[in-house]
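Job type: complex structure
Entries:
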Amino acid sequence: MKLTIKNWTGVATWRWVANDDNCGICRMPFDGCCPDCKLPGDDCPLVWGQCSHCFHMHCIVKWLQSQPVNQQCPMCRQGWKFNNK
Amino acid sequence: MNNPSFDYKAAWATITQAFPILQSPPSLPESDFETVPFEAVNTIKLLNLAEQIQGLVITRMEERLRKDIVPQFWSHFKKTDHDSATFREFHDAVKFLYYNYMKLDLIMNKLIVLREASNVAKPVYNHACLHEALKLIVKAVLLSQLPVDQQWLILSFYEKALKRQDCEEESYGNEQCCGCLQEQYVCQCVEMFQETNKKLGKMALLEPLVGQSLTDLIYNYIQAHIQKICKDSFDTSHLESLEKWLQSVIISWLKKIYYYDCANRSERFINEFDQKLISYLYNAYTKIRIDQLFNIIIEYPDSLPALEDLRLCLPKTDLKPHLTKTLQKAMETRLLHPGVSTSDVLTAYVATIRSLRILDPCGLLLETITQPIHRYLRSREDTIRCVVSSLTEEGPNDLAEELVRGEAVQVDENTPVDDGVEDWETWTPDPVDGVTSKTSGLPRTSDIISMLVNVYGSKELFVNEYRTLLADRLLSQYSCDTEKEIRYLELLKLRFGDSQLHYCEVMLKDIADSKRINQHIKQDLNYSEDDIPMSAMIVSAQFWPPFKDEKLELHKRLAKQMEKYTSAFETLKGSRTLCWKTHLGIVDLEIELADRSLSLSVSPVHATILMHFQDHKSWSLDALSKVMHVPSTILRRKLSFWQSHGVITEREPDVFHLQEEQENKENNLQDDIVVEDYESESAMASAQDQREEELQTFWSYILGMLMNLDTLPLERIHQMLKMFAFQGPTIECNIQELKVFLDRKVREHQLIYSNGLYRLPK
């Protein structure tokens, strides 16, 4: 028997490689989106801080804007710095 | 008397000569045309016996009528078997009666002369005119001897005449008379008919003798005529033609009969009768249409004329309650039973809504009629699925059309009522005859989709079902026409609102994105495809309905390919990775066997089986099950798919072989193998499983409760859950469902149930 697979269409779910399931700010799943967004993934990305905590980008930006001084990570209270890995 | 020599005998002889009826035995001479018997009159006057003679004569006449004429007349009415003679029979009877009547009338003439001569003015039977008195007498004697079964002759006589009239209206060229079945030119029916009526009219017997029969006959005739015309044809309007028929056939025929009615009331009488007949016609027609209403509804767009007729008839008759009752009953017996598939119920329901909209624009009738349907649909499990799938189905479909019409769904609760403030001038109150329901305070809508959604009262159920169906469709046909789906989604959004359908939007976007990602990855230089062209549907798990959880270990070659794909994805989209749902997807295969080749689209499980068979020609069920991580029962089912294609055979129990060559055709038709209809299987977790999942969330609450309070009855558990767990718009569960859930926990030994109380096992 000769078996030729002309096309294999698989189904996969994507997920963020993060050390948690939910965003610490909005408590929504990372694989979903922040409360202000409609579409997950590219439109509502995650960002990591140098403290290794990660959040929805929109969430952390909003948080940082509400903190005029001492921009800290809401989880560990270290100064927030984006980790551009 | 003052003259003793008066010859009384001679005087009596003169009198009896003038009134032969006084002779004994009384005689009615055949030709009694003597002119006024002056001599007798003078004698009577002389003797001053006018009143006595008159009384005597009338008594004799009555006797004569009673003993002789009327019995003979009625003897014609004896029931006979042969039908053809009845026409003549009645005619002869009337002729006979009339002949005798005329003779009695001549006697009356003489009596009148007598009365005038001797100035007797005392009325006889309240009639100053003796002719009228005679008519009264004849009528009285006739009716006093009325036989029980007299009607049949009259009925048959007039029925024949009426048929004849009807035939004439319909076909002029008919050579044969319908009454006597003779050629038209020898037929005397018309003459006989007219003569009979004329005679009856002269005797003033038309109404007393035949009136009732005539009415019965006409009613029956109308009924039969309508039955004949309306039988199973709903596509023409009959109202006008029926009214015309009534005028041209029945009424004109009646006029012919009552033309001879001597009483001078014919005009008014006919008019009154006319009104009565028209109302009867409407009543009969409406009743028939109401009895057919279920069929009319089923054939809805074609039966429009019948519906229009009914709409016109309803205000003229008082049959709305009858309609409601009949239709409800018809619905119950013909629609709302387990033998009818849900989609048929829905089709009928849509047709009902549309037709009743025509009958009763205010919607009250609709509401009353459809209540049982609502109740019934609610009890069917697949209702939502049917509604949703027919909403999105292709081809001519009522619901899909409704969807395209596009109106926002009004769910009963909290929708602001803004109905028709602009046309308040044309507002009319609800008819009082409808069954008032408790919901009558709410705005009534006749939008079909709204009504269907209101069957359940929640949009969520519908949206969820739609989501599941959409997911199935998208997964089963990767190349699916997303544009069409997007169009439907937009239409649905118009009705159900953006927020409800947001998840579906993401799902469609996932499909579009997957296509783009596939293209990107294929262009990626680091990504290579050995022999398996690979593509993926990359979905956002949070937005899709939960997938059915099945395990499947793919073939090594494929697993490697998938890894490559995953790493290509990871480089394309930083910090994201893929979790494969190995059992989902579609595989396009081409199988080349020694004697034939097959080209198929199959599920990954089926493809994996074949890949393993490519490595080894034979597998035992257990070994394959271990390699693929699929339970052997399921695996056997999957194998049967290939068996039915003749690719694999089970030569000995639980050992399967690859079959390169088909042995012979007969053997190949393995009837006993059930071909699994794999397409019908949903990739999504069933609604029941989902529900189970939801209930599971309560389990921790229940555990907590029982740990603190030791034992609790079902009601308490439900109450406490209501207080703590069922908050917000999340799922609720009724007490019944909770009981089922707890009972299962008892079976699984996670709970103990005794004396109506639940507690945790120690």
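Summary: The domain at 35-85 of chain A is CATH 3.30.40.10 (Herpes Virus-1). The CA atoms of residues 44 and 52 of chain A lie 19 Å apart.
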